[in-house]
Specification:
By secondary structure, this protein is an alpha/beta fold. The chain is built from 9 helices and 6 strands; from the N terminus they run βαααααβαβααβαββ. It is elongated.
Length: about 230
């Protein structure tokens, strides 16, 4: 039997679209505020989402200016946003990919940046515990180092390195996803944003060689397909 590979994945904008997480929280805020103020929920959603690039606090400050009898502080609304149960789904083709890789005996890991609370809520909403064992999930808010450092990749190597023939990292963000995998001899893979909705640009020409992935794939169904 061929020795399995370690195939580690980013979470946001790789396994699901981060835009959907943002909109999920915005819908919750719009509904709560509509119930409390009598304002139209669709208009509130548009106001919150439209201001989001300046930050959720700025968006909610703009909302507070509209709703003169605001029954919540901005800080309280931020907490509601941060604690909401996400309404998100895996991107097309991802569930089939993870199912195939797990069935083939590969070691699967998740390496993601963010707070434990945020990332764990996304993992639960997406049902990713079906594919990633608890000791194969590396969240920067829990490990103490994000992907701008070698720490999460080193931890994955310590967990799986002795049992695999190759190590891959599949991500989307040229700023941080591929630098340390490249330096450590992993095979870096960028999953293209064919829908054009990712938070971060994927213009490879904007980045030096060390930031670029070794492989670029548009269709998750073509990732790690057995050679015919």
């Amino acid at each position: 039997m061929t020795t399995p590979s370690l195939i580690a994945f980013d979470l946001d904008d790789t396994l699901y679209k981060e835009r959907d997480f943002l909109r999920s929280g915005h819908r919750v805020l719009a509904r709560i505020l509509a119930e409390a103020t009598g304002e139209d929920a669709c208009e509130l959603f548009a106001l919150i989402s439209g201001n989001h690039p300046r930050g959720i606090e700025a968006a909610l400050a703009a909302l507070a200016a509209k709703c003169h009898d605001m029954p919540f502080t901005v800080d309280a609304l931020v907490e509601i946003y941060r604690n909401h149960t996400p309404d998100i789904q895996l991107s097309p083709g991802i569930e089939a990919l993870l199912t195939r890789l797990k069935a083939a005996g590969h070691r699967l890991a998740l390496i993601t940046d963010g707070s434990s609370r945020h990332q764990r809520s996304k993992i639960a909403a997406l049902g990713l515990d079906r594919f990633f064992d608890p000791d194969a999930i590396f969240i920067s808010g829990e490990t103490g180092g994000d992907k701008h450092t070698p720490l999460p990749f080193r931890l994955a190597e310590e967990r799986f390195g002795a049992s695999v023939s190759r190590m891959y990292y599949v991500g989307d963000n040229l700023a941080k996803d591929f630098v340390h995998p490249n330096l450590r001899g992993w095979i870096s893979v960028m999953l293209l944003d064919t829908a054009g909705v990712n938070v971060f640009s994927q213009n490879i020409a904007d980045w030096p060689a060390g930031h670029r992935p070794r492989v670029v794939v548009a269709d998750p169904g073509r990732l790690f397909c057995p050679q015919k």
